[in-house]
Design a protein that fits this description.
Elements (H helix, E strand, L loop, with lengths): L3 H10 L1 H4 L13 H17 L3 E6 L6 E11 L5 E8 L8 H16 L4 E6 L4 H9 L3 E12 L2 E11 L19
Parallel strand pairs: 3-4
Antiparallel strand pairs: 1-2, 2-3, 4-6, 5-6
Length: 181
């Protein structure tokens, strides 16, 4: 719960930036009780092995800059999961999400032993598509009326990364840890 105030502040500050890409926020979304519920839900997913959420913090001052999740993990014949992420408006386009992906992808394949990662984004979210393609994700198709985002059913572009594909870290896109201020 110690991250509540900084999380809520960043989300509120970034509301206009995030709402075009996210489901409609409930009225109580930024309350302490909603944050507590969110953390409990994250703990349940982690315990069940169906999701692994992470907050992203800036190294220089430990300030929260966003979040990234491996969720909807399916075992058995699929061995796959879905990547989702968000960045606070002041931190977008500054490399934090690229770095977060460079850490989460090896975790998904090496520790969780997943075979496939998927990500879906609205086709006109050029920044997100560019981020995923830079990480090695490949476009697979259009999911019509896939998710209800900001109150409307929206088409999404499906991108995927297979464990055997060349990954971001293998291609030298990210080398070492990057310090940012």
């Amino acid at each position: 719960m110690s991250d509540y105030a900084s999380w809520a502040s960043l989300r509120e500050q970034s509301r206009a930036f995030l709402t075009p890409w996210e489901p409609t926020w409930p009225d109580d979304d930024l309350t302490r009780s909603a944050f507590r519920y969110r953390i409990r839900h994250y703990q349940d997913e982690t315990s069940a092995g169906t999701g692994y959420p992470f907050f992203i913090f800036r190294n220089s001052d430990n300030r929260i800059v966003g979040g990234i999740t491996i969720g909807n993990i399916h075992r058995g014949v699929g061995q796959n999961g879905v990547i989702g992420y968000w960045s606070g408006a002041p931190f977008a386009g500054k490399g934090y999400m690229t770095e977060a992906l460079s850490l989460v992808i090896p975790f998904a394949f090496d520790q969780l032993r997943l075979h496939r990662l998927e990500a879906a984004c609205i086709p006109h979210n050029v920044r997100s598509i560019r981020l995923l393609e830079k990480a090695g994700f490949q476009r697979e198709g259009l999911l019509r009326s896939y998710l209800k985002i900001n109150g409307f059913w929206q088409d999404h572009l499906l991108l995927a990364l297979i464990e055997s594909d060349k990954r971001m870290t293998d291609r030298g896109v990210i080398i070492g840890k990057v310090e940012r201020s």
